Amino acid sequence: MLTTKIIWQRLLGLLPGEVTLNETRWLIRPCLHMPLMEQRRVRMIVNRVRLFATLFAALTPLWIIVDVLTLPFPLWLQLAILRLLATIAFGTLVMWHPQDGRLATAYQGMATLFAIPTLFYLISHLLLSHHQLQGISAAIGTGYAFLPFVLLAGFAIFPLTLFETLTFSAPVLCAYALALMFNWEEVSWPSFGGQFWLLFLLTGVASLASMSQLAFIIALVNQAIHDPLTGTFSRRSGEEMLNLHLSFARRNNSPFTVAFLDIDHFKSINDRFGHEFGDRVLQQLTQTVTHCLRRGDIVVRWGGEEFLLLLNNTDLHQAAHALERLRQHGLGMHPDGRQITASIGIAERIADGTDDWKVLVEKADTRMYLAKQGGRDRLVFEG
Protein backbone atom coordinates (compact mmCIF):
# COMPACT_ATOMS: atom_id res chain seq x y z
CA MET A 1 0.00 0.00 0.00
CA LEU A 2 2.83 2.38 0.92
CA THR A 3 4.70 1.47 -2.27
CA THR A 4 1.60 2.22 -4.38
CA LYS A 5 1.18 5.59 -2.67
CA ILE A 6 4.83 6.50 -3.34
CA ILE A 7 4.49 5.54 -7.01
CA TRP A 8 1.38 7.68 -7.35
CA GLN A 9 3.13 10.62 -5.68
CA ARG A 10 6.02 10.24 -8.12
CA LEU A 11 3.64 10.23 -11.05
CA LEU A 12 1.80 13.26 -9.69
CA GLY A 13 5.12 15.07 -9.66
CA LEU A 14 4.88 15.03 -13.45
CA LEU A 15 1.61 16.98 -13.16
CA PRO A 16 2.54 19.58 -10.51
CA GLY A 17 -0.42 21.50 -9.12
CA GLU A 18 -2.97 19.81 -11.38
CA VAL A 19 -4.43 16.99 -9.28
CA THR A 20 -4.16 15.98 -5.65
CA LEU A 21 -3.50 12.45 -4.42
CA ASN A 22 -7.20 11.98 -3.64
CA GLU A 23 -8.16 13.11 -7.14
CA THR A 24 -5.99 10.54 -8.92
CA ARG A 25 -8.88 8.07 -8.82
CA TRP A 26 -10.73 10.47 -11.14
CA LEU A 27 -8.07 9.66 -13.75
CA ILE A 28 -8.85 5.93 -13.55
CA ARG A 29 -12.66 5.54 -13.52
CA PRO A 30 -15.35 7.94 -14.81
CA CYS A 31 -18.03 6.91 -12.30
CA LEU A 32 -16.23 8.90 -9.58
CA HIS A 33 -16.59 12.29 -11.29
CA MET A 34 -18.83 14.95 -9.77
CA PRO A 35 -21.74 16.22 -11.95
CA LEU A 36 -20.17 19.56 -12.98
CA MET A 37 -16.92 17.85 -13.90
CA GLU A 38 -18.79 15.26 -15.95
CA GLN A 39 -20.88 17.89 -17.71
CA ARG A 40 -17.84 19.86 -18.89
CA ARG A 41 -15.99 16.72 -19.97
CA VAL A 42 -19.00 15.45 -21.91
CA ARG A 43 -19.18 18.76 -23.76
CA MET A 44 -15.50 18.49 -24.73
CA ILE A 45 -15.79 14.87 -25.86
CA VAL A 46 -18.85 15.57 -28.04
CA ASN A 47 -17.22 18.64 -29.61
CA ARG A 48 -14.08 16.68 -30.42
CA VAL A 49 -16.10 13.79 -31.84
CA ARG A 50 -17.75 16.27 -34.21
CA LEU A 51 -14.38 17.84 -35.08
CA PHE A 52 -12.77 14.45 -35.75
CA ALA A 53 -15.77 13.30 -37.81
CA THR A 54 -15.70 16.53 -39.85
CA LEU A 55 -12.00 16.03 -40.57
CA PHE A 56 -12.56 12.41 -41.66
CA ALA A 57 -15.58 13.41 -43.77
CA ALA A 58 -13.44 15.95 -45.63
CA LEU A 59 -10.28 13.86 -46.10
CA THR A 60 -11.69 10.36 -46.72
CA PRO A 61 -13.10 11.03 -50.24
CA LEU A 62 -10.00 12.97 -51.36
CA TRP A 63 -7.93 9.77 -51.30
CA ILE A 64 -10.12 8.34 -54.06
CA ILE A 65 -8.00 10.28 -56.55
CA VAL A 66 -4.85 8.50 -55.36
CA ASP A 67 -6.56 5.11 -55.59
CA VAL A 68 -7.77 5.79 -59.15
CA LEU A 69 -4.27 6.75 -60.27
CA THR A 70 -2.40 3.86 -58.62
CA LEU A 71 -4.70 0.86 -58.11
CA PRO A 72 -6.14 -1.50 -60.72
CA PHE A 73 -9.82 -1.62 -61.68
CA PRO A 74 -12.15 -2.81 -60.11
CA LEU A 75 -10.21 -2.50 -56.79
CA TRP A 76 -10.13 1.29 -56.89
CA LEU A 77 -13.88 1.37 -57.63
CA GLN A 78 -14.66 -0.91 -54.68
CA LEU A 79 -12.51 1.21 -52.38
CA ALA A 80 -14.08 4.41 -53.73
CA ILE A 81 -17.57 3.14 -52.91
CA LEU A 82 -16.35 2.13 -49.46
CA ARG A 83 -14.86 5.62 -48.94
CA LEU A 84 -18.07 7.35 -50.01
CA LEU A 85 -20.10 5.23 -47.59
CA ALA A 86 -17.67 6.10 -44.79
CA THR A 87 -17.92 9.79 -45.71
CA ILE A 88 -21.71 9.65 -45.52
CA ALA A 89 -21.47 7.96 -42.13
CA PHE A 90 -19.08 10.63 -40.83
CA GLY A 91 -21.30 13.40 -42.18
CA THR A 92 -24.34 11.85 -40.52
CA LEU A 93 -22.47 11.73 -37.21
CA VAL A 94 -21.59 15.43 -37.50
CA MET A 95 -25.11 16.52 -38.41
CA TRP A 96 -27.29 14.28 -36.28
CA HIS A 97 -25.39 13.28 -33.16
CA PRO A 98 -27.38 14.65 -30.17
CA GLN A 99 -25.85 17.03 -27.63
CA ASP A 100 -27.93 16.36 -24.53
CA GLY A 101 -25.05 16.58 -22.03
CA ARG A 102 -25.23 12.89 -21.08
CA LEU A 103 -22.08 10.78 -20.76
CA ALA A 104 -23.84 7.83 -22.44
CA THR A 105 -24.46 10.01 -25.51
CA ALA A 106 -20.79 11.04 -25.61
CA TYR A 107 -19.82 7.36 -25.44
CA GLN A 108 -22.16 6.56 -28.33
CA GLY A 109 -20.58 9.32 -30.40
CA MET A 110 -17.05 8.08 -29.73
CA ALA A 111 -18.00 4.47 -30.39
CA THR A 112 -19.56 5.44 -33.72
CA LEU A 113 -16.64 7.68 -34.66
CA PHE A 114 -14.09 4.89 -34.22
CA ALA A 115 -16.32 2.08 -35.45
CA ILE A 116 -16.60 3.65 -38.93
CA PRO A 117 -12.85 3.63 -39.78
CA THR A 118 -12.36 0.30 -37.99
CA LEU A 119 -14.94 -1.35 -40.27
CA PHE A 120 -13.42 0.51 -43.22
CA TYR A 121 -10.03 -0.98 -42.31
CA LEU A 122 -11.36 -4.54 -42.07
CA ILE A 123 -13.26 -4.41 -45.36
CA SER A 124 -10.46 -2.63 -47.25
CA HIS A 125 -7.94 -5.16 -45.91
CA LEU A 126 -10.16 -7.99 -47.16
CA LEU A 127 -10.42 -6.38 -50.62
CA LEU A 128 -6.68 -5.74 -50.86
CA SER A 129 -5.83 -9.31 -49.79
CA HIS A 130 -7.42 -10.62 -53.02
CA HIS A 131 -4.98 -8.66 -55.24
CA GLN A 132 -1.28 -9.13 -55.87
CA LEU A 133 -0.06 -5.53 -55.97
CA GLN A 134 3.40 -4.43 -57.08
CA GLY A 135 5.41 -1.23 -57.19
CA ILE A 136 3.60 1.95 -56.26
CA SER A 137 0.29 0.06 -56.04
CA ALA A 138 1.77 -2.15 -53.33
CA ALA A 139 3.02 0.94 -51.47
CA ILE A 140 -0.45 2.53 -51.55
CA GLY A 141 -2.05 -0.75 -50.48
CA THR A 142 0.38 -1.02 -47.57
CA GLY A 143 -0.69 2.47 -46.46
CA TYR A 144 -4.14 1.13 -45.63
CA ALA A 145 -2.54 -1.04 -42.92
CA PHE A 146 -1.55 2.07 -40.95
CA LEU A 147 -5.14 3.11 -40.21
CA PRO A 148 -5.24 1.38 -36.77
CA PHE A 149 -2.12 3.34 -35.78
CA VAL A 150 -3.85 6.60 -36.74
CA LEU A 151 -6.98 5.65 -34.78
CA LEU A 152 -5.08 4.77 -31.61
CA ALA A 153 -3.11 8.01 -31.80
CA GLY A 154 -6.42 9.85 -32.19
CA PHE A 155 -7.51 8.93 -28.66
CA ALA A 156 -4.91 11.41 -27.39
CA ILE A 157 -7.17 14.38 -28.24
CA PHE A 158 -9.94 13.20 -25.90
CA PRO A 159 -10.01 13.82 -22.09
CA LEU A 160 -10.54 10.20 -21.03
CA THR A 161 -9.86 8.08 -17.98
CA LEU A 162 -7.52 5.09 -18.20
CA PHE A 163 -10.48 2.69 -18.14
CA GLU A 164 -12.23 4.54 -21.00
CA THR A 165 -9.12 4.70 -23.21
CA LEU A 166 -8.42 0.99 -22.82
CA THR A 167 -12.07 0.13 -23.47
CA PHE A 168 -12.26 2.16 -26.70
CA SER A 169 -8.83 0.93 -27.85
CA ALA A 170 -9.72 -2.76 -27.49
CA PRO A 171 -11.92 -2.99 -30.65
CA VAL A 172 -9.18 -1.38 -32.76
CA LEU A 173 -6.59 -3.85 -31.48
CA CYS A 174 -9.02 -6.74 -32.05
CA ALA A 175 -9.71 -5.54 -35.61
CA TYR A 176 -5.97 -5.54 -36.36
CA ALA A 177 -5.69 -9.11 -35.04
CA LEU A 178 -8.81 -10.15 -36.98
CA ALA A 179 -7.32 -8.81 -40.21
CA LEU A 180 -4.53 -11.33 -39.71
CA MET A 181 -7.00 -14.16 -40.31
CA PHE A 182 -7.77 -12.90 -43.83
CA ASN A 183 -4.31 -14.00 -45.05
CA TRP A 184 -3.12 -16.28 -42.27
CA GLU A 185 -0.68 -18.27 -44.44
CA GLU A 186 1.16 -15.22 -45.77
CA VAL A 187 1.73 -13.47 -42.45
CA SER A 188 5.29 -12.70 -41.33
CA TRP A 189 5.01 -13.42 -37.63
CA PRO A 190 8.08 -11.40 -36.53
CA SER A 191 6.76 -8.39 -38.50
CA PHE A 192 3.25 -8.85 -37.12
CA GLY A 193 4.57 -9.13 -33.55
CA GLY A 194 6.56 -5.92 -33.93
CA GLN A 195 3.58 -4.05 -35.34
CA PHE A 196 1.28 -5.31 -32.62
CA TRP A 197 3.79 -4.27 -29.96
CA LEU A 198 3.87 -0.79 -31.54
CA LEU A 199 0.07 -0.66 -31.35
CA PHE A 200 0.20 -1.47 -27.63
CA LEU A 201 2.83 1.22 -27.18
CA LEU A 202 0.62 3.75 -28.97
CA THR A 203 -2.28 2.75 -26.73
CA GLY A 204 -0.15 3.47 -23.67
CA VAL A 205 1.00 6.85 -25.00
CA ALA A 206 -2.57 7.80 -25.95
CA SER A 207 -3.77 6.77 -22.48
CA LEU A 208 -1.18 9.01 -20.81
CA ALA A 209 -2.07 11.91 -23.13
CA SER A 210 -5.80 11.50 -22.46
CA MET A 211 -5.24 11.31 -18.69
CA SER A 212 -3.03 14.41 -18.83
CA GLN A 213 -5.82 16.31 -20.56
CA LEU A 214 -8.27 15.07 -17.96
CA ALA A 215 -5.94 16.16 -15.13
CA PHE A 216 -5.75 19.63 -16.65
CA ILE A 217 -9.55 19.80 -16.86
CA ILE A 218 -9.83 18.70 -13.21
CA ALA A 219 -7.49 21.51 -12.17
CA LEU A 220 -9.38 24.12 -14.21
CA VAL A 221 -12.78 22.96 -12.99
CA ASN A 222 -11.62 22.98 -9.37
CA GLN A 223 -10.39 26.55 -9.76
CA ALA A 224 -13.53 27.68 -11.56
CA ILE A 225 -16.23 26.14 -9.39
CA HIS A 226 -14.88 26.64 -5.87
CA ASP A 227 -14.81 29.72 -3.69
CA PRO A 228 -11.09 30.34 -2.93
CA LEU A 229 -11.68 31.39 0.71
CA THR A 230 -14.08 28.74 2.00
CA GLY A 231 -13.59 25.90 -0.50
CA THR A 232 -17.34 25.68 -1.06
CA PHE A 233 -18.94 25.94 -4.49
CA SER A 234 -19.01 29.44 -5.97
CA ARG A 235 -22.31 31.11 -6.84
CA ARG A 236 -21.95 30.50 -10.57
CA SER A 237 -21.23 26.79 -10.12
CA GLY A 238 -23.98 26.67 -7.50
CA GLU A 239 -26.48 27.83 -10.10
CA GLU A 240 -25.36 25.00 -12.37
CA MET A 241 -25.66 22.52 -9.52
CA LEU A 242 -29.16 23.81 -8.72
CA ASN A 243 -30.24 23.26 -12.31
CA LEU A 244 -28.68 19.78 -12.49
CA HIS A 245 -30.03 18.47 -9.19
CA LEU A 246 -33.48 19.98 -9.62
CA SER A 247 -33.74 18.34 -13.05
CA PHE A 248 -32.73 15.03 -11.49
CA ALA A 249 -35.32 15.44 -8.71
CA ARG A 250 -38.01 16.29 -11.24
CA ARG A 251 -37.24 13.22 -13.37
CA ASN A 252 -37.36 10.95 -10.30
CA ASN A 253 -40.21 12.79 -8.58
CA SER A 254 -38.06 13.07 -5.46
CA PRO A 255 -37.89 15.92 -2.92
CA PHE A 256 -35.22 18.58 -3.17
CA THR A 257 -34.68 21.22 -0.50
CA VAL A 258 -32.82 24.51 -0.60
CA ALA A 259 -31.74 26.25 2.63
CA PHE A 260 -30.64 29.90 2.66
CA LEU A 261 -28.25 30.57 5.57
CA ASP A 262 -27.11 34.04 6.63
CA ILE A 263 -24.67 34.63 9.51
CA ASP A 264 -26.14 36.92 12.15
CA HIS A 265 -24.35 40.24 12.86
CA PHE A 266 -21.47 39.39 10.55
CA LYS A 267 -20.77 43.03 9.77
CA SER A 268 -20.05 43.70 13.44
CA ILE A 269 -17.36 40.99 13.38
CA ASN A 270 -15.55 42.72 10.54
CA ASP A 271 -15.98 46.12 12.18
CA ARG A 272 -14.75 45.03 15.62
CA PHE A 273 -12.08 42.46 14.82
CA GLY A 274 -11.16 43.11 11.19
CA HIS A 275 -11.71 41.21 7.94
CA GLU A 276 -9.09 38.58 8.77
CA PHE A 277 -11.18 37.37 11.71
CA GLY A 278 -14.26 37.61 9.52
CA ASP A 279 -12.63 35.28 7.01
CA ARG A 280 -11.80 32.81 9.78
CA VAL A 281 -15.44 32.83 10.90
CA LEU A 282 -16.55 32.02 7.33
CA GLN A 283 -14.03 29.19 7.07
CA GLN A 284 -14.97 27.79 10.46
CA LEU A 285 -18.68 27.87 9.65
CA THR A 286 -18.29 26.13 6.28
CA GLN A 287 -16.13 23.40 7.82
CA THR A 288 -18.76 22.80 10.51
CA VAL A 289 -21.67 22.76 8.05
CA THR A 290 -19.85 20.47 5.59
CA HIS A 291 -18.94 18.06 8.41
CA CYS A 292 -22.53 17.88 9.71
CA LEU A 293 -24.29 17.46 6.35
CA ARG A 294 -24.44 14.25 4.32
CA ARG A 295 -21.79 13.50 1.74
CA GLY A 296 -24.13 14.19 -1.19
CA ASP A 297 -25.33 17.56 0.14
CA ILE A 298 -23.80 20.72 -1.32
CA VAL A 299 -22.70 24.01 0.24
CA VAL A 300 -22.59 27.11 -1.98
CA ARG A 301 -21.24 30.51 -1.03
CA TRP A 302 -24.02 32.69 -2.43
CA GLY A 303 -22.81 36.07 -1.17
CA GLY A 304 -20.47 37.59 1.43
CA GLU A 305 -21.87 35.81 4.51
CA GLU A 306 -24.75 34.06 2.74
CA PHE A 307 -24.66 30.35 1.96
CA LEU A 308 -27.00 28.07 0.07
CA LEU A 309 -27.37 24.44 1.13
CA LEU A 310 -28.64 21.96 -1.48
CA LEU A 311 -30.19 18.92 0.17
CA ASN A 312 -30.92 16.09 -2.26
CA ASN A 313 -33.78 13.64 -1.69
CA THR A 314 -34.78 15.55 1.47
CA ASP A 315 -38.28 16.83 2.14
CA LEU A 316 -39.15 20.00 4.07
CA HIS A 317 -39.53 18.42 7.52
CA GLN A 318 -36.43 16.25 7.18
CA ALA A 319 -34.43 19.32 6.18
CA ALA A 320 -35.86 21.36 9.07
CA HIS A 321 -34.93 18.62 11.53
CA ALA A 322 -31.38 18.27 10.15
CA LEU A 323 -30.74 22.02 10.11
CA GLU A 324 -32.18 22.51 13.59
CA ARG A 325 -29.76 19.83 14.78
CA LEU A 326 -26.95 21.68 12.99
CA ARG A 327 -27.97 24.96 14.62
CA GLN A 328 -28.03 23.36 18.06
CA HIS A 329 -24.63 21.78 17.41
CA GLY A 330 -23.17 25.23 16.87
CA LEU A 331 -21.70 26.97 13.82
CA GLY A 332 -18.43 28.07 15.39
CA MET A 333 -17.15 30.75 17.72
CA HIS A 334 -16.78 34.52 17.49
CA PRO A 335 -13.33 35.93 18.24
CA ASP A 336 -14.69 37.03 21.65
CA GLY A 337 -15.86 33.51 22.49
CA ARG A 338 -19.57 33.90 21.70
CA GLN A 339 -21.37 31.31 19.56
CA ILE A 340 -21.85 32.09 15.88
CA THR A 341 -25.54 32.03 14.97
CA ALA A 342 -27.38 32.16 11.66
CA SER A 343 -30.85 32.82 10.29
CA ILE A 344 -32.05 30.07 7.95
CA GLY A 345 -34.87 29.92 5.42
CA ILE A 346 -35.95 26.64 3.79
CA ALA A 347 -37.89 25.85 0.59
CA GLU A 348 -38.66 22.49 -1.05
CA ARG A 349 -39.80 21.78 -4.62
CA ILE A 350 -42.80 19.56 -3.84
CA ALA A 351 -44.07 21.40 -0.75
CA ASP A 352 -43.71 24.79 -2.48
CA GLY A 353 -44.98 23.54 -5.84
CA THR A 354 -42.18 24.78 -8.10
CA ASP A 355 -39.51 23.25 -10.32
CA ASP A 356 -37.86 26.60 -11.02
CA TRP A 357 -34.66 26.89 -8.99
CA LYS A 358 -34.82 30.69 -9.03
CA VAL A 359 -38.27 30.64 -7.44
CA LEU A 360 -37.08 28.07 -4.92
CA VAL A 361 -34.08 30.22 -3.92
CA GLU A 362 -36.30 33.32 -3.68
CA LYS A 363 -38.68 31.52 -1.31
CA ALA A 364 -35.79 30.35 0.87
CA ASP A 365 -34.33 33.87 0.82
CA THR A 366 -37.68 35.40 1.84
CA ARG A 367 -38.00 32.95 4.75
CA MET A 368 -34.45 33.73 5.83
CA TYR A 369 -35.46 37.41 6.15
CA LEU A 370 -38.51 36.34 8.14
CA ALA A 371 -36.10 34.55 10.50
CA LYS A 372 -34.08 37.78 10.77
CA GLN A 373 -37.20 39.78 11.54
CA GLY A 374 -38.29 37.18 14.09
CA GLY A 375 -35.21 37.75 16.23
CA ARG A 376 -32.41 35.88 14.31
CA ASP A 377 -30.82 32.57 15.34
CA ARG A 378 -33.74 30.53 14.02
CA LEU A 379 -35.03 28.76 10.90
CA VAL A 380 -38.27 29.34 9.00
CA PHE A 381 -39.81 26.95 6.49
CA GLU A 382 -43.29 28.49 6.09
CA GLY A 383 -44.62 31.83 4.96
UniProtKB/TrEMBL annotation:
PROSITE patterns: GGDEF. InterPro entries: Diguanylate_Cyclase, GGDEF_dom, Nucleotide_cyclase, Rev_trsase/Diguanyl_cyclase. Its EC number is 2.7.7.65. One of its GO terms (molecular function) is diguanylate cyclase activity. SMART domains: GGDEF. It catalyses: 2 GTP = 3',3'-c-di-GMP + 2 diphosphate. Keywords: Membrane, Nucleotidyltransferase, Transferase, Transmembrane, Transmembrane helix. It is an enzyme of class 2 (transferase). The chain crosses the membrane at residues 49-69, 75-96, 103-123, 135-158, 165-184, 196-221. Residues 254-383 form the GGDEF domain. NCBIfam families: GGDEF (TIGR00254). This is diguanylate cyclase. It comes from Crenobacter oryzisoli.
